[in-house]
TrEMBL record, chain A:
One Gene Ontology cellular component: nuclear inner membrane
Transmembrane segment boundaries: 276-294, 326-345, 365-384
Keyword field: Membrane, Transmembrane, Transmembrane helix
Name the record gives this protein: Transmembrane protein 120A
TrEMBL record, chain B:
Chief location of this protein within or outside the cell: nucleus
Highest rank taxon of the organism: Eukaryota
Similarity annotation: Belongs to the TMEM120 family.
InterPro entries: TMEM120A/B
One Pfam family here: TMEM120A-B
Coiled-coil intervals: 40-70
Protein's cellular compartments: Nucleus inner membrane
Residues passing through the membrane, by range: 160-181, 247-264, 291-309, 329-350
Protein name, entry field: Transmembrane protein 120B
Membrane-topology descriptor: Multi-pass membrane protein
Source organism: Eptatretus burgeri (Inshore hagfish)
Amino acid sequence: MPNHPNLGSPHHPIFQWKLFQSFMRQNRELHCSNALNTPKQTKSSREASSPFAELLTRRRGCTMADRSLTETLSEWNDLQKGNEGLQQVFQKYLDDLQTTSYKQSEISSNIARQHRHLADLAKSLRKCEHTPEAVALRIQIQQRDNELREMEGFLPKPSGKYLSLVLGNLNVTLFSKQAKFSYKVEYENFKLYLTCTCFLLTLALRLWNSYKTIDTLLNFLLVWYYCTLTIRESILVLNGSRIKGWWVTHHYISTFLTGVMLTWPDSIMYQKFRLQYLDFCIYLSLVQFLQYYYQSGSLYRLRALGQRRSLDITVEGFQSWMWRGLTFLLPVLFFGHFWQLYNAITLYEMACECGWQEWQVPVQSFTYLLLFVGNFSTTLRVLLQKLREKRQKIS
Amino acid sequence: MWRSHPPASRDSASGDCRGVCKAAIAPVGKMALNGCLMRWQELEEEYKGLQEAHRQYKQKLQEVTELQTSCSASIRCQKQKLQELLVHLRRYQTKASAEELDTVKALQQSIKERQAVFFDMDAFLPQKNSLYLSLVLGSINVTLLSRQAKFAYKDEYEKFKLYLTIILIVTSFACSFLVSYRVTDEIFNFLLVWYYCTLTIRESILISNGSRIKGWWVTHHYVSTFLSGVMLTWPDGEMYQIFRSQFLYFSLYQSFVQFLQYYYQSGCLYRLRALGERHNMDLTVEGFQSWMWRGLTFLLPFIFADHFWQLHNAITLFKLARHPLCKEWQVFVLAVTFLVLFLGNILTTLRVVQQKVQRKTESKSKIR
């Protein structure tokens, strides 16, 4: 271990020597009939009935104290021995770490090179004739690409811009399938707990409170929740999750929306919109709650059947695999999307009616509209895709 | 005359031409395919080597993980036993004789040194995340497993602070002198909230990696996040307009002091590190650390001015809170928060300065 002195062992003989000296001195004193240095451990209140009794008491007192210090020293000695072994193992660990990190960079660069060569080969293959051999080679190239990507799952990957900004150059790659899966499960649980918390808080605000101050607490919690979701999802994406497109952007937009809600002063317009907003939040929490249970149940079933990639997550929205037995969730989701449209319309009418002094009103109106358009079109697209696939299967 | 020629001959000529061309292309196409197949064979060979290297790497990774677990367990066990020994020694100290007292003290010192060694060793082993980090990141391991990586991460943290400080200087300058809309103020406040939140995350990661930044300097960022958040919610009114300029000038000055501190401290830290005199994970923080005494006395008045400006903000806000027109809760809360910040900052800075003066006088008396 660089820079760390091997402590303890030089001291140990000194302790033992001091202890031995102390033992010898006390024994000499105890045998001496002259005035003795009264050891501190003799109780002052106890009066010796005879010099022998006093000696015995002293010796007994001394022996007890020495034994406890001896015990301590022998324990320290044992720990010393254990520590020497530990230092050796630790040094081996540090050396192995170094070797592993060299191997990591070497293998990463080799894999990157293979990817490049495969891409060049695929390009030159396109210029060749369309023979069965060429087709077979193309398939093999594709397979090799997939195999390389699986290998990359065990190597540290550079974080994206967002993660680098928030976390710096921390490696957030999880090196085993089990670790990735448990991280995903943890993400789902985090969403569930926060959804429950937001649901309870919103319900409390809806029923018992009408002060903007406490609404602010809910809004800060929501902003923090969406920001944390974006961080965790970026980590999941880096580790191979295929959540994509709109569902990721959706969280950034929700962060922005809640932030704007935070800055909205307590005015007549705010009070007018407040109840609608809280009702909408309650509904959203319930939908997310429902989705979590149905999707995780479905996902476990599908995974048990080996039919889905492990990193698929429950997201706000309809993924393609959700068709199986989850049609009942669809109307619930669509109702949520249309509520967003209704919010957009309400806010727009409010802005037109009461003037455009509070900029939060038109901005939120536009943002809700954006959310509605994004959510609705993405859900519809997934639905249409599934219907088409079903029809193709039937035909 | 051309037209009287039967087109067939032309056709056959062109047909012959096409046939010749096809015959010419066919070997070329086949050559290209053969070239591709040869290249594929080469790549296959490379891939086999890569697979073997990857298999060995995975095996090594497995061994490293096992070593990590066993080292962590041993260290944990040793730390527990050391703690028990310390407790026992403390109890024994009261009834020890004079010679034994020396032994006991020396043993206690050795135990404390061993504990420091284990603290440093822990920085190379995966740790369970603190509550804050596990809330934000989940169970991602944030331990950087080499000194070089830790140092690089720390450097990056310092640069992040520097760049954001520059951005904050520019933004607060713009809000103070160029624009005066509540919207731009909101953007500035959101930037502050995000900056302080990100700092808290990065500092938690640094602490997990063995940094010794502690106590007030960490809490200070959480308090600043809260302050900026409350500032965010303050609606635009008369009270806000009265306080606005003071707050923006203060933010500008504070960012400027942080900028100065960065340059002086990083220079000093590099010098000390080159002399091997400081723990590598010390950071430049808002405040005066004990080693900063060396040649940095000139920064002290700037730092004290910053603290006293916070007190001035607190007093202004307390006065505003008693204003008849003041209805906003933010005013009083901000006043209390600025006061807390002032007290924390001034007490910590004074304590560090006092410690240094004491050490200087002690070393001077020893020399004499």
